[in-house]
From TrEMBL, chain A:
NCBIfam families: ComEC_N-term (TIGR00360), ComEC_Rec2 (TIGR00361). Gene3D superfamilies: Ribonuclease Z/Hydroxyacylglutathione hydrolase-like. This is DNA internalization-related competence protein ComEC/Rec2. InterPro entries: ComA-like_MBL, ComEC_N, Competence_ComEC/Rec2, Competence_DNA_uptake, DUF4131, Metallo-B-lactamas, RibonucZ/Hydroxyglut_hydro. CDD domains: ComA-like_MBL-fold (cd07731). Its main location: membrane.
Length: 761, 231
């Protein structure tokens, strides 16, 4: 079996893919593959049988079972069960995964801390504790917009089907705990220790890089690392585990504390504890298990190839945690490690350090590119270059400094302050440098959603390219290289070849955000970009932008917006603009002359040197032959809502009227000014409030289709019942974002009418 | 799996091209494998002498010119091709193989022999017959197997035991002059009318092969070439 474990892993993956994606044809490919392997004497008969068994077992193991909704815990009844995961505490909340005893259903439980009320009750909440809890069990929220992260699916991948929010600490009573809690306590103690001994800046980085908790690092820096594909440095992986075990081994053997054999043994024990101390993410487990196996093999002179080790670790991970295979971190970690392992001939051929790092960086990037695109919709091509310098910086400076700082804070406090200060100095400087680079050189290539079908040609070409790179045959490199670049260009060009355009009214909750995409990507226009508030209802939040607007635009491969038309200056129409103009190339912002941007938007508009055009009734905005006629306001109405831009446009064979938040006075006024105004599609004013959409107006414009952009369970009770009644009489169809999610109209460029679709069925 | 020669464990190195489709199991470890030098480029078109420089166009070397100038040996052996350089490692391996009777060592050569034969002969000589250089009856008794025969059995062509050897001194103990001048030790048992590829383990001066070729040609064989493990 030596040297063939990868074949078992491939068999297992085939089994998993076949049943989870319902690709039964893969079994046929599997059979052909086995036949060829056996025919050409690459495997012996027992291997053949073993591979079939592996595929069969994994198919059974992963066969999707529709879990019956038989949870006997519908309403506020008492649920008995066990805390499965670590109890994670942040400043505002406590959360963990809970398993009900009878049905073995898993629940994601969260408790939002009451800032006024401190309680020690939560200290009895421990991993492994047996508890009884009370609360409303609900299904996790689903995504309601294209491109949006699907939290329900995310939890389902971890076999969690329900969630529960604790109303008060008394709703959960626990006793006992498991051994794992001991390690979590240890970790907590270490954390408090570090925080008292070391400056907050350095301790945040120690916690992230040694203990796997990055919640003390500023969000802006985490996002910065994400933009530059540096996140792998923040997640503990092979690099960190390798370095840390290297340090420990060095200390033990060089000081003469332990013999080499004993040092190996101690190291294995420490390594196996480490995942519990560091949060146990998939990459930690992968790295730790690989190191442990590696050490066992090394110390016994048992020779096993690296691919066998990674294969065995892969199988071990699946056995320990079945759902781990669906986690992005696990997939990234294994694919990148495997790709680097298999390319070692190509890596070893160079003897220049920088070139080797470049090659590793290249291999890591291209080997997970489709996954990266499928989840984040963009790539940052210059990230490879930055990695070239930041990876060695972390390896040679950050990790050793932090490790020594950590040890010395316990041993020699004086030296530790010295290291602390110097680390802060160096690292702040480097972070400032990266931020500067980000300001100047951040050019994301927004490619958009990549259909799963493209994975197959991509990985086929890539494997041929890697084979050629290993063999160093120039002629063989060019062909797959060209195919690969061609494929990427084709994927990136798809929007420009697409004859369909869309109008999408996103479900941004209580607010408006409408995206108009012209056929062949000849233009992208936004009408309003709603924002939302934090839980206190007063501080602006970027949630709507980050979770809905940006993912939607990115998933469509949109990085440039020709015009953002802002109806009026309310937060539920413009709250995302300040974030939008920072990350997208917005050519022009169009407003009425009575539009006064609030702080801090006005300041950001100035900083970004954003072009703003004021426009009044009678004028029009034209983006590649697509005209948006402004029919209101013609004068100042001294009310934000009544100063809303009203836009009339003929899109995809239909006449559309976008009304912002105008009131009935403006509506009536419009019927006088434009007595012949009739429309096919009406964006109902002011989220369906009864202050608008009066009978006379509806009678006049006769909307065939009405669109209402309104939040689920909003506190204004929009849309009002009387408005719905009026609309029902006049309109054939009413679409509502609160009930149906994003509403999308898809049309062809030939002027024929298109079709409406809703994100939720 | 252990290395046939040094008995170290062989760890197959999985790379991109072997990840989905592994190679056939190796007989030699990486170190021994690289110790055997395959003949990639040829200096002499006739005897298949390996060239040391890449750019050289194959010509006829001085040894072969001498053979060709002698009318009695001219064109007796059309050409010879070999698999490996006869370097110290190979010398050691062949010695162990044929003199000490370690039969399994020939596994280490299998793949290279098949590949080289395919490269040199399969297309150009589609229906030749293989004739392994025989051992004398006494020698065969002593060694239990004929190394040339073993090599011939690896190849996809039919072989014929057309020759018989009269017992004499070992060639390896003679000088070039002695070898060329010595009496032809071969006797033809059955004449062959087809092209013949002689198979032997080593080509040193080419005398043995030419002696064998001469016997074959005298009885009407149209063309004789040869294929050896080492050169």
């Amino acid at each position: 079996m030596r040297g063939d474990w990868n074949l078992i892993v491939i068999s297992v993956i085939i089994g998993v893919v076949a049943v989870t994606l319902n690709f039964l044809f893969i079994y046929a490919i599997f059979a052909i593959w086995l036949y060829l392997l056996y025919q050409y004497k690459r495997i012996k008969f027992p291997h053949l049988i073993l591979m079939i068994i592996a595929c069969f077992i994994s198919s059974l193991y992963y066969y999707p079972i529709n879990i019956q909704d038989n949870m006997s815990l519908k309403q506020n009844s008492v649920i008995e069960g066990v805390i499965l995961s670590e109890v994670e505490e942040t400043t505002t909340s406590t959360s963990f995964i809970f398993q009900e005893k009878k049905s073995e259903q898993k629940l994601s439980v969260t408790y939002f801390k009451d800032p006024k009320y401190h309680s020690d009750q939560t200290t009895s909440w421990k991993t492994g504790a047996t508890c009884s809890l009370q609360g409303q069990v609900v299904s996790p929220p689903i995504s309601k917009n294209p491109g949006q992260f699907n939290y329900r699916k995310h939890l389902k991948k971890q076999a969690i089907n329900y969630q529960l929010t604790l109303g008060s600490v008394t709703d959960l009573e626990c006793e006992n705990s498991s051994v794992r809690q001991y390690f979590y306590n240890l970790r907590k103690d270490i954390k408090t220790d570090i925080e008292t001994k070391i400056s907050s800046f350095s301790s945040a980085w120690i916690q992230a890089l040694l203990l796997g908790q990055d919640n003390l690092i500023e969000d802006a820096d985490i996002e910065l690392f994400q933009r530059w594909n540096l996140s792998h440095l923040l997640a503990i992986s092979g690099l960190h585990v390798g370095l840390i075990s290297g340090f420990i081994y060095f200390i033990f053997t060089k000081t003469g504390m332990l013999t080499r054999e004993k040092a190996y043994f101690v190291l294995i024990v420490l390594l196996l504890i480490y995942p519990f101390l560091s949060g146990g993410s998939p990459s930690v487990w992968r790295a730790v298990l690989m190191s442990v196996l590696g050490i066992i093999v090394l110390s016994n002179n048992h020779k096993i190839g690296l691919t066998d080790i990674i294969s065995i670790v892969f199988l071990l991970c699946l056995i320990i945690n079945k759902e781990i295979i669906f986690q992005l971190g696990f997939q990234f970690s294994f694919i990148v490690t495997l790709a680097i392992l298999l390319s070692r001939k190509f890596l070893m051929r160079s003897n220049k350090k920088l070139e080797i790092i470049f090659r590793i960086s290249f291999i890591s990037t291209v080997s997970v590119l489709p996954l990266q695109l499928a989840h984040f919709y963009f790539i940052n091509p210059l990230a490879i270059l930055l990695n070239l310098f930041i990876v060695p910086y972390f390896t040679l400076i950050v990790m050793p400094l932090l490790f020594v700082l950590f040890i010395s804070s316990y041993v020699t406090p004086f030296i530790s302050t010295l290291i602390d200060t110097s680390f802060e100095l160096i690292h702040q400087f480097v972070l400032t440098l990266i931020r500067g680079i980000d300001d100047i050189f951040y050019y994301p290539w927004v490619i958009g959603e990549i259909p799963f079908g493209y994975f197959i040609p991509y990985y086929s070409f890539l494997i041929f390219l890697f084979i050629a790179l290993n063999k160093n045959k120039k002629s063989n490199i060019i062909f797959p290289g060209i195919l690969l670049v061609g494929l990427m260009i084709w994927i990136a060009c798809r929007p420009y070849l697409n004859p369909y355009g869309t109008v999408t009214m996103l479900d941004v909750g209580q607010g408006d955000a409408i995206v108009i995409e012209l056929p062949y990507r000849k233009g992208v226009v936004l009408i309003d970009a709603a924002g939302t508030m934090q839980n206190d209802f007063t501080t602006p939040s970027d949630r709507t932008y980050k979770q809905i607007i940006k993912p939607f635009l990115y998933s469509k491969g949109i990085g440039k917006i020709d015009a953002v038309i802002l109806s009026h200056a309310d937060h539920d129409h413009i709250g995302s603009v300040s974030y939008l103009i920072k990350e997208f190339a917005v050519q022009n912002i169009i407003t009425s002359p009575y539009f006064i941007p609030p702080e801090p938007l006005s300041q950001i508009l100035e900083e970004e040197k954003q072009t703003i055009t004021a426009i009044v009734a009678g004028q029009q905005v034209t983006i590649d032959n697509q005209a948006f006629k402004i029919i209101h306001p013609d004068s100042n109405h001294y009310s934000k809502n009544d100063n809303s831009l009203v836009i009339l446009s003929n899109i995809g064979g239909l006449t559309w009227l976008f009304t912002g938040d105008i009131s009935k006075e403006v509506e009536i006024n419009l019927t006088h000014l434009y007595p012949n105004l009739t429309v096919d599609v009406l964006k109902v004013a002011h989220h369906g409030s009864n202050s608008s959409s009066v009978k006379d107006f509806l009678n006049k414009v006769k909307p065939d289709i009405s669109l209402i952009s309104v939040g689920e369970n909003n506190r204004y009770n929009h849309p009002h019942k009387e408005v719905m009644d009026r609309l029902l009489k006049k309109s054939n169809i009413i679409y509502r974002t609160d009930l149906q999610g994003a509403i999308q109209y898809t049309f062809k460029d030939n002027g024929e009418q298109g079709t409406f679709s809703t994100f939720l069925p | 799996m252990h290395c046939v020669w040094c008995h170290m464990k062989i760890i197959p190195e999985v790379e991109w091209h072997t990840f989905f489709f592994p190679e056939k199991p190796r007989k030699l470890c990486q170190k021994c494998e690289t110790g055997l030098e395959k003949i990639d480029s040829i200096a002499c078109e006739m005897c298949g002498r390996p060239s040391t420089k890449d750019e050289e166009n194959p010509t006829i070397c001085s040894d072969c010119t001498r053979w060709q100038q002698d009318p009695s040996w001219e064109d007796i052996l059309v050409f010879n091709r070999s698999v490996y350089h006869y370097n110290p490692l190979l010398q050691e391996m062949i010695t162990k193989w044929k003199y000490r009777g370690d039969y399994h060592i020939c596994q280490s050569f299998e793949e290279a022999v098949e590949a080289a034969f395919k490269q040199y002969f399969v297309k150009t000589h589609p229906d030749a017959i293989l004739v392994p250089i025989p051992l004398s009856a006494e020698r065969l008794q002593e060694r239990a197997f004929n190394q040339a025969r073993v090599l011939a059995d690896l190849l996809p062509y039919q072989s014929a035991n057309a020759l018989k050897r009269i017992h004499g001194e070992k060639q390896a103990k003679k000088t070039r002059q002695e070898r060329i001048a010595s009496v032809n030790p071969f006797v033809l048992e059955a004449p062959i009318k087809k092209n013949v590829i002689l198979i032997d383990d080593i080509y040193t001066t080419g005398t043995t092969l030419r002696h064998a070729a001469k016997v074959l040609k005298q009885q009407g064989c149209p063309k004789v070439c040869s294929f050896t493990l080492a050169r």
